[in-house]
Amino acid sequence: VPRSLTDGKRSVKVEFAADGTGDAVGAVFGVWMRRALVIDGSNPLVKTRYTADPAGYVDGDWFYVFMGHDDDKAKGYRMYDWSVVRTRDMETWEDLGAVMSVRETFPWAKPEGAWASQAIRRDGKWYWYVAVFRKGGKTGVAVATADDVRGPWKDAVGGPLAEGNGFIDPS
Fold first, then answer.
1. What is the pLDDT of residues 11-47, one digit of tens each?
2. Residue 97: which residues within 8 A CB-CB, separation 6 or more?
3. pTM of the predicted model over 0.70
4. From CA 45, how far away is CA 90, in angstroms rounded?
């Protein structure tokens, strides 16, 4: 069933199955597409630095985005820390900045060896699972804990939870 979605500036034509199952999928997809069409990139989450590997998490009224912070001066990839932004309305974002660094939280890892991450909150405590390069070359997944998303963050186990080759994203 062809349908056209528009926000007044752009139009997208999509087709959904006409067998009954497509109607539900089409309705959900159509709502999502209408929302997607009005997003025009004029409100980026972070405007002041390079970021990578965003991971979202909802806690109460807040939506958090945890991400790596890529060094502006690096030739290629180099990340020393992780940043957080948050919002209650998906329009106004609060940038909490770099709240955790490899050097301060995981001294057993290479200072420039931050990779992707994912955080959760459980029983009032934050757990931030991060991929890092261990001194000596292997990659690993580590976990840090904090009572507040702004830190201070502490290494929960004193080393990687798992290590090997290719541990670059705990999600």
1. 444 444 444 444 444 444 444 444 444 444 555 677 7
2. 83, 84
3. yes
4. 10
